[in-house]
Write a structure and sequence with these properties.
Distance between the termini: 42 Å
Structural class: alpha/beta
Low-confidence stretches: none
Largest sheet: 10 strands, mixed
Helix content: 40-55%
Mean pLDDT: 96
Number of strands: 10
């Protein structure tokens, strides 16, 4: 199967690399520094269980999605509409587009912009681009995909490539569960520039995280979303399972890039305001990250 990865950063390179390693024809669409390195040496897939150079196609052109039956949509939440507009004219009519993004409303926004089938996908993986064409995997890697006519086929491809994948009728709840993890960790890791394991040892951090989680759960409940599992236990586990991981927001700020904070704590803040629910902890974290972004 031909597969395209739109916005091949750390997440896209990891999953695209795993699928290419399993024998699929994959094209990574990303930034020139990574594309040049991948064309020259292949993708360096540096995982917890193996390290290998994977031969894989790479392009800086959005038109490279042409002919792909499966598209992994991995752009920043802030770029969803722009990327959809660029990609739309080149997509096959029957392509399935999976949104491997942070935030809870990307699939809805993407579906509004495309005729093709879009399926929301929840990503649980810790990765980073350790250098040009070099993706480093720090932990986990599971996917949860929303039902669609071709979701079972996509899930089978991932499973055969060594990626644990399931289909869920409650992807909205799973997306909120992931959003809660991001709201608890991303801003604090970004502000402190600390990895999760050290971050949680900070004075008062536990209490702040608990406030964030409670606010998120209140907004989710008022939105009619059932968040599965024990959200605080899930937050607590992250520091143990990914102690060396810096949040994507921390990585963005360290590189002077715009983060996705508007679609994380900022989303909870806006949704809370619309529903009449106070979210002071999320407001403060969102405000501080925006100040750091403005500093450049």
């Amino acid at each position: 199967m031909k597969i395209a990865v739109m916005g091949a950063g750390a997440v896209g390179c990891y999953y695209g690399g795993m699928l290419a390693r399993a024998g699929h024809s994959v094209v990574l669409i990303g930034r020139p520094q990574h594309v040049d390195a991948i064309r020259r040496d292949g993708l360096l897939l540096d995982t917890q269980s193996f390290k290998a150079h994977v031969p894989i196609e790479a392009s800086t052109e959005v038109s490279a999605v042409q002919g792909a039956q499966l598209v992994l949509f991995c752009v920043k939440s802030t770029d969803t509409e722009d990327a959809a507009a660029q990609m739309g004219p080149h997509l096959m009519p029957d392509a399935l587009v999976l949104t491997l993004q942070n935030g809870v409303d990307n699939a809805e926004r993407l579906q509004d912009a495309l005729r093709q089938q879009v399926a929301a996908t929840v990503v649980y993986v810790a990765t980073e681009m350790a250098g040009p064409g070099h993706v480093r995997h720090h932990g986990r890697g599971e996917l949860v995909i929303a039902p669609s006519p071709r979701s079972d086929e996509a899930a089978r491809l991932f499973i055969e490539a060594g990626v644990p994948t399931q289909i869920s009728d409650n992807v909205a709840g799973a997306l909120w569960a992931k959003l809660i993890l991001n709201c608890a960790y991303n801003a604090l890791s970004a502000i402190s520039q600390l990895p999760y394991g050290r971050l949680v040892q900070g004075v008062g951090v536990d209490a702040v995280m608990r406030d964030v989680v409670q606010e998120c759960l209140a907004v989710a409940e008022a939105s009619g979303v059932t968040v599965p599992g024990d959200s605080w236990a899930a937050v607590d586990r992250i520091a143990q399972s990914m102690p060396t991981q810096f949040s994507s927001t921390a990585q963005d700020l360290a590189r002077g890039k715009r983060s996705e904070i508007d679609h994380l704590n900022g989303y909870v803040l806006r949704k809370g305001e619309a529903l009449g629910i106070a979210t002071p902890a999320n407001r403060v974290l969102h405000t501080l990250v925006k100040l750091l972004e403005a500093r450049g």
